[in-house]
Amino acid sequence: MLGLDGAEAIRLADLEGLYQEAAARSMGVSRQTFGRILEEAHRVVADAIINGKALRIEGGQVIHDKEQHMHDTVAVPTRNGMVDEHFGHCEYFTVYKIEDGKVSSEKRVDSPDGCGCKSDIASVLAKGGVSLMLAGNMGEGAVRVLKANGIDVVRGASGEARAVVDAWLAGSVKDSGVGCSEHAGHDCAH
Question: What is the pLDDT of residues 137-149, one digit of tens each?
Fold first, then answer.
């Protein structure tokens, strides 16, 4: 028997591809507890596969992740108050807290030197509670790094950063699905 928490751990780590720290945040447990849950779940699944046993998923509790609810912390790559056209080279990130369907506060998080997708900015933002990035252009490598840290990405945003967040809250900002073509050979999957 595989508990619901084990099934959720496998879904987050193996299907969604989240790093353990991001998956742990999503489940509302420590990274160490998540690791123990995942290790036990892998053992149960391996036993079922290798020894031809039936696998039943039931029991325990699952803490539903934020993705099923409204994102409550949103980041925007910013330059001079506007959405920066290129995520990896933005001046800073503006992080907005959302309460009751509107912006309740904002703060500035300075960008690291170098390419954003190869810096540690994704984990820094994730540790700060960011679960959504509203961006202009962004390559697939950066999208993968952000998603692995539990941050969803909406590309194609432009204009004043706060206005973009307000428009997203109103439901009028959707992902363009278009990646950054400026660095066609640039791969940040390393």
Answer: 888 888 888 888 8
